[in-house]
Amino acid sequence: MKILLLVSAFNGLTQRVWCDLRRSGHDVSVELASAHTDEDGLASAVAMAAPDLIICPFLKHRVPQQVWGKFPTVIIHPGPIGDRGPSSLDYAIAEAAPRWGVTALSAVEEMDAGPIWAHREFDMPQDPPSKAALYNGLVADAAVECVREVVAKAADPRFRPTSQDQVPRPIDGTRTRPSMPQSARAFSWSDSATSIVRRVRAADSAPGVRGTIDGRVVSVYDAAVGETVSPGTTPGTILGHDGDAIAIAARDAAVWIGHVKEPANLGGNGVKLPASAVFDVADRPALTAPAALRAARYERRGDVGMLRIRAYNGAMSTRQCERVATELRAALAQDTRVLVVTGTDAFFSNGINLNVIETAPDPAAEAWANITAINELCTLLVSCVSQLTVAAFGANAGAGGVMLGLAADVVVARSGVVLNPFYDMGLYGSELHTYTLPRRVGAGTAQRLLTEKLPVDADDAARIGLVDAVGPRDAAAFDGWLWDLAESHANPQWHNSALDQKLRLLGDAFPPAYYEAQELSQMARDFFEDRNGFAAARAAFVGKHTPDRTPARLAAHRWSLTGER
Ligand code: COA
């Protein structure tokens, strides 16, 4: 079937749907609604694709009548039947809805009011998830199931979607709600820590919640509940810091805030940054952040160690890489046989931190420090011969964050995870990818991945050898599967021969440092000479500039016209 994905951005969910549909043999193309300034332009771009079906997995724009009147157009709405409006997930998290859902409905004149094609419901986690984690997790899972059902139904000429009035509402109380305003998100430091954290997570990663810290108005993100505060502590007091995060007294306990943004309309730089870099906390007490916000957490079970690394949005700044390196060295020094390195349910890694680089006094120098710091992590993994290392993509990864995982001996992924194994920021890339990537997938496929710049999901990654195995989608089941897999690799016979083989490999070719030196010589030119537009690409990424056209590699419907791909 010829399917057009009409979207506001080629975001994580769209990438997952794109991979899934292509693997099922469909002819899939993408058009960015955001690249059009008027409805006529959008309609003629869609007409060029002449699709059998349009699916909108992530669309903030209105679909023009010229489009939905001519082509079957299905919106994937991140809310259950009857829910309408642009802030569905924000309300679901803020109001602690016990169940939520996703609905596939026809685009019609009124937003989210069309007849129903498919729907799925799920239990919401008890601990409030961030909106981004919910979106890329349970919502994406339900959305992919809805899309598969929609495609099957679209192939059936007898199928007609059912009017919303005729479908029972699986979740009570759903209704039309406006975009959630800041006034509804606002909190006071005199509120309870759990209620503040819930409010912040309902707006994370966007738009954040405005709050006042140390007399400055900022948008806050990346929150977790900390220890109980001593009686008499004034709410709003900065209690201390740990890593990127700072602790602030709420009524009953500390609220840890990992990231803040000083709004551009209030004179700030408008870039989301580690809170400890924005507020001067050097003189405040060094505390221990809750596990959810720590750069790395180690756990040992018998012969297996597991290091869970964590960077907000997967963006690993120089400081964050250094923190992880300290923990990684300690984990590698243990007498375990296998070390697993994994991320969180939300992110594995997206490589160097472009926000920190963009706002640094000397961005080129900061980028250089950052790439050498992340390379250190890769080198530690690649050159380890005392333990077998396993990297587990439990969540999405991009650019150098994928290559970081490839530095391990065994690489696995959770089903449904999307990897972007290429560099698309005017950078040659490093992270030892010239050493690891061709060894995994072969020189030809490595070159194709780096130049095509297309996402691969876990199943595609396994097919091309980018990962060795794919584990269950359910996060808890994946965790159990991962421990079992690591345990099986700890078997002395298997383990010793795998390490012997690694030693031989390391001895056979040029050392990893040779590859790193070659990569860094390219990166030096990218950073310091800016020969391939890194500064502009980075500024556009950090500033969230809207692209003025759909990237040629995604717009298959234009290839015959433009000759580009
Ligand atoms: N540095 C800083 N922030 C990053 C980042 C990075 N390397 N990678 C992702 N992010 C942030 C995004 O700005 C976005 O922030 P916000 O929503 O809080 O404002 C968030 O992470 C999610 O990223 P987004 O791009 O919306 O996710 P996606 O699923 O659509 O796309 C990627 C995933 C990996 C393709 C995309 O994030 C990307 O290209 N990242 C940059 C990778 C890179 O070039 N790294 C440097 C070279 S190693």
Walkthrough of the structure:
With 565 residues, the protein is an alpha/beta fold. The chain has 3 domains: 2-166, 3-Layer(aba) Sandwich (Rossmann fold), CATH 3.40.50; 182-281, Roll (Methionyl-tRNA Fmet Formyltransferase, Chain A, domain 2), CATH 3.10.25.10; 294-527, 2-enoyl-CoA Hydratase, Chain A, domain 1 (Alpha-Beta Complex), CATH 3.90.226.10. Helices cover 37% and strands 20% of the residues. It contains 20 helices and 21 strands. The strands form 4 sheets. Strands 2-1-3-4-5-6 form a 6-stranded mixed beta sheet, sandwiched between helices. β13 (296-301) and β14 form a beta hairpin. α12 packs across α13 (433-441) and α13 (433-441) packs across α14 (443-452). The longest helix has 24 residues, at 131-154. The radius of gyration is 24 Å and the shape is globular. The model has no long low-confidence stretch (mean pLDDT 96). Coenzyme A binds next to α10. Coenzyme A binds at residues 11-12, 205-206, 272, 313-315, 350-355, 396, 398-400, 420, 423-425, 427.
